[in-house]
Amino acid sequence: MDDTARIAARIQKELPKVKRGTLRFWGNWFGRPYDNVHTLLTCAADQNVLRMSFSEGESLSVWAPGELKLDDSTFQISDAERVLWEWFASGRAKTKENLFFRDFIKTGETVVVSTNVNSYTPDMSTDPTKPAVEILGLTVKLSPSS
């Protein structure tokens, strides 16, 4: 079992108790800090890509994920080659036209962000010294680490 498969198995084992909350990618908040709650439903490994789905149809893909920190108060993936967050526009039908993304690609000491958001200008700043993925907010009790 490779590292990505081990991370996926650990996350999947802890569902549905994995921390719920607002997402942050290399220091870049999705929405305002602590303003929205995302609930992780599934996690699987697809070769070297971690694929996660969330309760409102969102999906998160993480290429070559680094160390996972997962406990009662923390959900972090330390680093990655790429992180792709996809979501449907709030209050609209879940159609292809309403599917948006933020694509974070790490090259050396920088993280470049692209998006197809067209209704506002999103913050595209990142800090490559911060974790690639974090869920911040609500905390639940997890079982002891195996």
SSE inventory with pairings:
Elements: H1 3-14, E1 20-25, E2 28-29, E3 40-46, E4 49-54, E5 59-63, E6 68-71, E7 74-77, E8 82-88, E9 99-107, E10 110-115, E11 133-138
Antiparallel strand pairs: 1-2, 1-11, 3-4, 4-5, 5-8, 6-7, 7-11, 8-9, 9-10
Structural summary, described in words:
This protein has 146 residues and is mainly beta. The protein has one domain. 8% of the residues lie in helices and 42% in strands. The chain contains one helix and eleven strands, in the order αβββββββββββ. A six-stranded antiparallel sheet has the order 3-4-5-8-9-10, with helices on one face. Strands 2-1-11-7-6 form a five-stranded antiparallel sheet, with no helix packed on it. The longest helix is centred in the N-terminal third of the chain and has 12 residues, at 3-14. 26% of the residues are buried. The mean pLDDT is 89.
| Overall pLDDT confidence | 89
Low-pLDDT segments, ≥5 res: none
Order of helices and strands: HEEEEEEEEEEE
Q: N- to C-terminal separation? A: 15 Å
- Characterize the main sheet: 6 strands, antiparallel
* Spatial ordering of strands, largest sheet: 3-4-5-8-9-10
Evaluate the radius of gyration.
15 Å
Helical fraction? under 10%
What form results from the Cα inertia axes? globular
Per DSSP, the total helix count is 1
Content of β-strand: 35-45%
Task: Say how many strands there are.
Answer: 11
Number of structural units classed as domains = 1
Q: What structural class is derived from the secondary structure elements? A: mainly beta
